[in-house]
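User: Fold this, then the next.

Assistant: Folding the first:
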Amino acid sequence: MCIEMPVVTKCVVNECAYNASNSCHARAITIGDEHQPGCDTFMAGSHHAKPHGQIAGIGACKTVGCKFNDDLECMAEGIQVGIVKNEANCMTFALR
């Protein structure tokens, strides 16, 4: 069984090694913890992933207070990742 994952439609965290041209090129990312929607896949680095056809999906979301979270899976159409207080965060996060 193949489950469709929502994708990272935009990532403006240019310091992340997976970011190339405001696009995330990790295979999948994990979002947050119980309280904060941080991008757990963020990895600072000067060598960036090469752009390729694959755009990152959201493999898991641990931020249970988000209205898009259903059984630790993201149900948003897609998400955007940006910077909040110097940390990579899911900008699509919305409280229940």
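Now the next one, as you asked:
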Amino acid sequence: MSANNEGRDNMNERKVRILEAIIQDYIQTGSPVGSRTLSKKYDLQLSSATIRNEMADLEDLGLITQPHASAGRIPSDKGYRLYVDNLMGKTDLGPDLDNLIVKMLNDKMNDIDALLEETARLVAMMTNYATIAQTLPLAEPTVKRVQIMPVEFKSIVCVVVTDNNLVKHNVITTSLEVDENLANVLTSMLNKAIKGMTLTSLKRCNLDDIDPMYKPLILQIIKVIIQILAEENTNQIFTRGTTNILDFQEFNDMQKARELLELLEEKPYLTKLLSKSSGNSVNISIGEENALESMKECSLITTTYKVGEYTLGTIGIIGPKRMNYSQVVSLLEQISYHLTLMLGNEF
């Protein structure tokens, strides 16, 4: 988040306190906020008349708006922006929640896709917003080791370990029966022929030294290994909690809700959406700052997780503009920290 002082310089301390109170109340209730509510619920130590005058000034500054004549005020996109850039504090998640995050992520450390899926599920559960998680290939994967194991008549399991210690396996139906001895022979041949190869080099590898009797089966296995590496060389996206948006009054209009839900199924757009997240910070896009019409009533909060200087992936949260920014930012920072730490120890 980059600090934005536009509007802040024109505000005295009273205006700051009133704007904070309006935003916090609207986040909690979803109802327009009037001077009477502010006077009764918040220790502003100001008269209702003074509060009304300051609210009129905040409206002139474009920081709050009146949805209809008889209502109180709600924050504008500009008001939310000033709040998250200059006024918002951090939420203390506490050690119990932090320990839960570590435990749930640790349980999936052996499978990067499962870890990412668990991250999306965990964030959606803790925030009640829609969550997107994306993993990016660190570099073109390289074959570190291959293991062939017989499982049943004319079926084998091909296990591939890549240079970054990701383990993938596929079941292959073969044209002949493979026993333990033949599986060991195939394993030895494959490791001798393709160990250290990248996806690109594997596609044009030379198998002239392979015994012609085994070549058709070796070629069949290599095709599967190419498929495995190709999957590892593309970004994976998981969405969880997408229907959580239906719990918010902003999406009572079923047409709006449908458009947003359809958007959350479009992988190319989600990839583009998450690509805007950069650096080590949390990024926030509010309302009109989002390009698509179906996102104008939403805020998007994203952060990345890394190994060294390499970005491994992005986590994003989509919710109404009145989302609990402090809680979400604190949670994303904590999860990003733990993912970066755990993955740094793995790679």
